[in-house]
Design goal:
heterodimer, A: 3 helices, B: Rossmann fold, 8-stranded mixed sheet, 5-stranded parallel sheet
Chain lengths: ~80, ~350
């Protein structure tokens, strides 16, 4: 799952797969995320993992890095099972 | 239709009384009048025609349209594709767009293929404009020019191998200052026309009324310019102290002209960092209005945290202070005069 999330993050930023490290903070000015790319990422995560991400979960701690997103998605999938 | 921001014209037998390529090069006088009215009100105009592309330079030269249309799509393919390309290129919602064609078949065809766009005849559009009393600000009048400048930016972006270098070359400056009475019309326009980056918790009338209501409140506006032009007032925030060092964000709107990477975040941080807007903590409600999820993303990007069980998000000012902004934006702060 980490690879998939990292690929989605990289794709949203228009970067090559593998260029985003699991702990890279996504909100640094160097990461390049803005509101529209974040929205695209959320939509991609929802489509890929067949989840609905509510506004309540649009939390900077959840979207801090690839690793924190993976934890969140994993939790959501576990709850569904 | 929500607010008319863009009119996409057909050419043959709509703007023109006949077919351009067949030498029928007379402009429909009502179309000419409507085009002038649209230009005066800063409503963008684009052209979608099933003529070959080489017709356009000839038409531009003959009719003096080189500064009129912000986007032209000309080829022999389906008209709906051209309309979609124009909407995508300008980033304008079909809800805010009118497609004008004198042929009812073409209007029906576009309506069937592009949900939520308004299709109309020239007479329909003329009647709409004559009955419309929307405010027209200086920024509104300059809007077509600003979109043309935006297209120059995009071309520059395409020609620059490194996007970051391109952004640095733009010399982007944001000026943040206290709200002045002369900002009222633009504030109303920002709160009315901005959909994606609008908190939208208050009805626009109420949000505007509160700006001029006596009492302790803090309103800050942001202007933006770069080497391509002056985009004017693009952002506004209205804060009301709530005791204990907290402020409630009553209204927040940031124009989508700040869409280049990192600019909307820089503008939000700039607005909240102005000395008139400094509080220990900021609190606001976020209510989805059908299009303002980008604002919710922006709030998250700025560090606003959701409050469990409510529709509120909260930001502590220390987080604002530690926010790292892109090095391609310079923010200047102006204090109140006197």
């Amino acid at each position: 799952m980490e690879d998939t999330v990292a690929r989605l993050v990289a794709s949203t930023l228009g970067k090559k797969p593998g260029s985003v490290r699991p702990d890279d903070p996504l909100f640094s000015s160097q990461a390049g995320f803005d509101s529209f790319s974040l929205m695209e990422l959320v939509l991609l995560l929802e489509d890929t993992f067949e989840l609905s991400i509510p506004d309540q979960d649009l939390d900077p701690d959840i979207f801090h890095s690839v690793n924190t997103i993976v934890s969140y998605v994993q939790d959501r999938l576990d709850q569904r099972d | 239709m929500r607010i008319l921001k863009l009119v996409i014209w057909d050419l043959d037998e709509t703007i023109l009384t006949g077919i351009f390529e067949e030498g029928d090069e007379e402009i429909n006088p009502t179309a000419s009048k409507v085009m002038r009215l649209l230009n005066e009100r800063g409503i963008l105009q684009a052209l979608a025609t099933q003529n070959p592309p080489d017709v356009i330079p000839a038409a531009n030269e003959k009719f003096g349209w080189s500064e009129l249309f912000v986007q032209v799509e000309a080829d022999l393919g389906p008209k709906a594709k051209k309309v979609r390309r124009i909407l995508d290129a300008l980033g304008i919602n079909p809800l805010d767009t009118a497609f004008v064609d004198e042929d009812p078949f073409e209007r029906g065809s576009i309506s069937a293929q592009i949900a939520e766009i308004t299709t109309c005849s020239i007479a329909d559009l003329e009647a709409y404009l004559e009955g419309d009393s929307s405010i027209v600000t200086e920024e509104a009048r300059r809007r077509p020019q600003m979109y043309r400048e935006q297209q120059s930016r995009t071309r520059g972006e395409e020609n620059t191998s490194e996007y970051d270098d391109f952004l640095r070359s733009c010399n982007i400056q944001i000026t943040v200052r206290p709200y002045l009475p002369g900002d009222a019309m633009r504030a109303e326009e920002l709160l009315t026309r901005t959909h994606r980056m609008n908190l939208g918790v208050l009805p626009v009338d109420e949000a505007v009324a509160r700006l001029s209501r006596p009492g302790e409140h803090h309103v800050v506006v942001a202007e933006m310019k770069d080497i391509y032009g002056d985009m004017g007032r693009c952002g506004i925030v209205h804060l009301t102290p709530d005791g204990g060092g907290e402020a409630i964000i009553e209204s927040l709107a940031i124009s989508c002209r700040t869409r280049a990477r990192g600019l909307s975040l820089a503008m939000l941080v700039g607005l909240l960092s102005h000395s008139d807007a400094q509080f220990e903590r900021y609190r606001c409600r976020y209510v989805f209005n059908g299009s303002n999820r980008p604002l919710r993303m922006l709030l998250m990007g700025a560090g606003f945290k959701p409050q469990p069980g409510t529709d509120e998000v909260v930001l502590d000012s220390d987080q604002l202070e530690s926010m790292e902004l892109p090095d391609w934006v310079q923010i200047d702060y102006q204090l109140a005069c006197g």
